[in-house]
Amino acid sequence: MSDTTYTTPAETIAAAVEQLLGERARSITVARGEVTLVVAAGDYLDVMQTLRDAPQTRFEQLVDLCGMDYSTYGDGRWEGARFGVVVHLLSVSLNQRLRVRVFCPEDDFPVVASVNGLWNSASWYEREAFDLYGIVFEGHNDLRRILTDYGFIGHPFRKDFPLSGHVEMRYDAERQRVVYEPVTIEPREITPRVIREDNYGGLH
């Protein structure tokens, strides 16, 4: 059995990223063998290009990008910006991964730069984050809804979006078209989480 390690240690990745970015890295943390980098919105695009092109990082692939709404994070104890974007990068040539997190400066109109020009795979992910969270990606060449209907009102993954939505849609046979109407669904009753005592039902 070979002792060869095929994955770059997280501490090694963190050190390389810190040396490369300097003050542009707001924070770099290592948890559960994963590296998370936090950057300011103003540095985001420049940092992402550096991470892609620098020989010590070479993150050739963007494998995931998603929006986040931190308004209820930590049971409401979160004091930072409400909206953020989390990106997962992969370097095939160096066999290493990195998570990058950037927060939108304004809660009322969340905007960050688009990285679609750096990685083509970002296009649909950014459209999804725009559709579901209302995060605008400045510089995206085709930013429009991707999962909801064009006439949909609101952004359904925001924490303050009602479970039943704002409107409902149905086909009207008389008018021979789809119509939008006020929601007629009764609000759901949410059952609170039950915390059972130790050894409940004889389980250990």
Question: What would your notes on this structure say?
Answer:
Helix content is 17%, strand content 28%. The protein is built from three helices and nine strands. The strands form three sheets. The chain has a five-stranded mixed β-sheet with strand order 1-2-5-4-3. A two-stranded parallel sheet has the order 6-7. It has a two-stranded antiparallel sheet with strand order 8-9. The relative contact order is 0.11.
Secondary structure blueprint with pairings:
Blueprint: H1 10-21, E1 25-31, E2 34-39, H2 44-53, E3 61-69, E4 83-91, E5 96-103, E6 111-113, H3 122-133, E7 136-138, E8 167-172, E9 177-182
Quick synopsis:
The protein is α/β, with parallel strands linked by helices and 204 residues long.
Low-confidence stretches: none
The profile of the biggest β sheet is: 5 strands, mixed
Q: What fraction of the residues are assigned to beta strands by DSSP?
A: 25-35%
Q: Helical element count?
A: 3
Q: Helix proportion of residues, in percent? A: 10-25%
Our measurement of the CA-to-CA distance between the termini, rounded to an integer number of angstroms, reads: 37 Å
